[in-house]
Backbone:
């Protein structure tokens, strides 16, 4: 018996760990393209970039984990191809046999294709190598231009401000983090970053980069023709799933490796989890591909149980966090642009939550510096509590208090006046 | 070198020698101490690094910030007056021989 896992990231190591914890006795092999001890990515755009000496990356598991759990880590080894008929994964040298194969290949940064994009001084941020390069460049950088006001771009903007740099962010869309946040929260973050000193340019994309006298990047020219001096550029325009290995093996892909509610592909011996997987959502949307630690680890725990023979659907509530300078953003559930929204708390003091209602019932909560609201929302949403807008608007309502009350799903509207 | 002693719910103890400036969470995760997960990478966002600090070290601990306080309220294991998030505690000279107890669960 053997499970082969492709990808030594957050999802890959968790599935290996959970398989052992849940009692799997066969061989477990993790194929990891990156070399070195697998590490956690979230700190790379936050603490890791803080001014000071080069920090030590935070490992996903200690070095002793692999021997203790009898898990083989093939580090620095990419998987090259899958033979599903023979149940083999081809490596540069030799191949590995599997009874179950788990894709945990993550995602890669989307790249720009404008003139000047290969000039030195233009960075991406995905790996430890990327973060090392940025940590080395930040102390001497002055003018930083960031392409894309997504999570990575804005976390980096906050880090760059802490180094005393001038920071400009170009974002084509009308709001920052527009794919993930409600318009209320997006607008609030736009104002908040500007108040910190970020020059946030919305509705403005990148047209080209121009070299300086030293041959490195010297300026960014935007789609409106505006010219921004730049000695360091970060491109953070989103990611694409690493799904070619799967599609080459004849598995369906569509913005990710397509899996069912048990996280299996059409081939029951093959599963996909984490950033690379497109799965049917139990929380509103039809199909989802999420990029978060929660999604990677919860799907990994679930996939381990599927491998061990369970056939429950994956239904965990999505949650996410991002730290951007003084702002701690936490999200529970997935907001939709057409949700009905209610703000509770104090926006001016940067302590508030946006409650989203779908068909009158609480469906997602975004919080800034309100951990108690976030944790209560996670509990309520996961338990399927029915909180109506009317309830939430009542004098004295707090998510924290609602979260403490025993969760009783309220009968549908036809049975009770609401 | 400072040391940290982690006590498992069954009483077994492991003592690590650590560099000053590391956190109780980082040392645990880097050295494979069971029962401290640290899923958010030390941001006080996941409460999977909950520990009980022995009272004799209470004086030397940093104040609990509001975010840590709110996350501790929602940790998987019961919160007591000894509860802390391991990621928020940096080891310095005053905490040089700290002993902590690991709760029965973090998820
Ligand atoms: C800078 C940064 C900050 C982030 N901050 C947050 C945050 O604050 N909160 C949050 O929830 N999430 C955050 N994330 C997202 C989170 O880190 C990811 O969602 C998570 O790591 C996904 O786990 P994964 O295992 O699916 O992919 P990954 O962790 O990316 O691992 C995939 C691994 O597979 C390897 N691989 C790919 N193809 C092959 C192959 N053919 N053979 C062998 N190996 C292969 C890759 O090299 C990679 O190491 C952040 C991400 C980044 C980059
Ligand atoms: S590591 Fe997440 S709260 Fe400490």
Residues:
């Amino acid at each position: 018996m053997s499970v082969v896992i492709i990808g030594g990231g957050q999802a890959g190591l968790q599935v290996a760990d959970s398989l052992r914890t849940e009692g799997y006795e066969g061989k477990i092999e993790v194929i990891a393209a990156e070399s070195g001890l697998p590490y956690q990515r979230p700190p790379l755009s936050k603490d890791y970039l803080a001014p000071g000496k080069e920090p030590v990356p935070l490992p996903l598991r200690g070095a002793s984990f692999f021997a203790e759990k009898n898990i083989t880590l093939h580090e620095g080894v990419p998987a090259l191809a899958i033979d599903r008929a023979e149940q083999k994964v081809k490596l540069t040298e030799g191949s590995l046999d599997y009874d179950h194969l788990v894709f945990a290949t993550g995602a890669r940064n989307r790249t720009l294709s404008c003139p000047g994009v290969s000039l030195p001084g233009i960075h991406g941020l995905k790996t430890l190598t990327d973060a090392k390069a940025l940590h080395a460049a930040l102390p001497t950088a002055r003018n930083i231009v960031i392409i894309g006001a997504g999570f990575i771009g804005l976390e980096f903007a906050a880090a760059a401000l802490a180094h005393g740099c001038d920071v400009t962010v170009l974002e084509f869309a009308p709001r920052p983090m527009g794919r993930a946040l409600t318009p209320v929260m997006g607008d609030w973050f736009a104002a908040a970053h500007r108040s910190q000193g970020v020059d946030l340019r919305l509705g403005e994309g990148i047209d080209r980069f121009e070299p300086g006298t030293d041959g490195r990047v010297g300026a960014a020219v935007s789609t409106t023709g505006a010219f921004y001096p730049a000695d360091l550029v970060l491109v953070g325009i989103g990611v694409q799933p690493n799904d070619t290995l799967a599609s080459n093996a004849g598995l369906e892909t569509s913005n990710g490796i397509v899996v069912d509610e048990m996280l299996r592909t059409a081939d029951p011996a093959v599963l996909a989890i984490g950033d690379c997987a497109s799965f049917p959502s139990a929380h509103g949307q039809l199909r989802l591909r999420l990029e978060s630690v929660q999604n990677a680890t919860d799907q990994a725990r679930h996939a381990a149980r599927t491998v061990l023979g369970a056939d429950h659907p994956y239904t965990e509530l999505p949650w996410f966090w991002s730290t951007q300078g003084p702002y701690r953003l936490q999200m529970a559930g997935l907001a939709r642009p057409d949700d009905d929204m209610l703000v509770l708390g104090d926006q001016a003091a940067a302590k508030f939550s946006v409650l989203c209602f779908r068909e009158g019932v609480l469906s997602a909560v975004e919080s800034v510096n309100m951990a108690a609201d976030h944790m209560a929302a996670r509990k309520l949403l996961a338990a399927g509590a029915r909180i109506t807008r009317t309830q939430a608007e009542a004098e004295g309502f707090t998510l924290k208090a609602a979260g403490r009350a025993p969760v009783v799903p309220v009968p549908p509207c036809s049975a009770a006046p609401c | 070198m400072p040391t940290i002693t982690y006590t498992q719910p069954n009483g077994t103890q492991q003592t690590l020698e650590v560099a000053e400036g590391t956190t109780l969470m980082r040392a645990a995760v880097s050295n494979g101490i069971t029962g401290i997960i640290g899923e958010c990478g030390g941001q006080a966002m996941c409460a999977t690094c909950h520990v009980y600090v022995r009272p004799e070290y209470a004086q030397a601990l940093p104040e609990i910030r509001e975010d840590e306080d709110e996350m501790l309220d929602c940790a998987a294991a019961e919160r007591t007056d000894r509860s802390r998030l391991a990621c928020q505690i940096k080891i310095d000279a005053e905490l040089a021989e700290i002993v902590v107890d690991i709760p029965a669960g973090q998820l």
Summary: The pocket of flavin-adenine dinucleotide (ligand 1) is lined by residues A 6-12, 31-34, 41-42, 44-45, 78-79, 104-106, 125-126, 152, 242, 245, 274-276, 291-294, 296, 320-322 (CB under 6 Å). Chain A has three domains: 2-34+41-107+241-307, 111-237, 326-404.
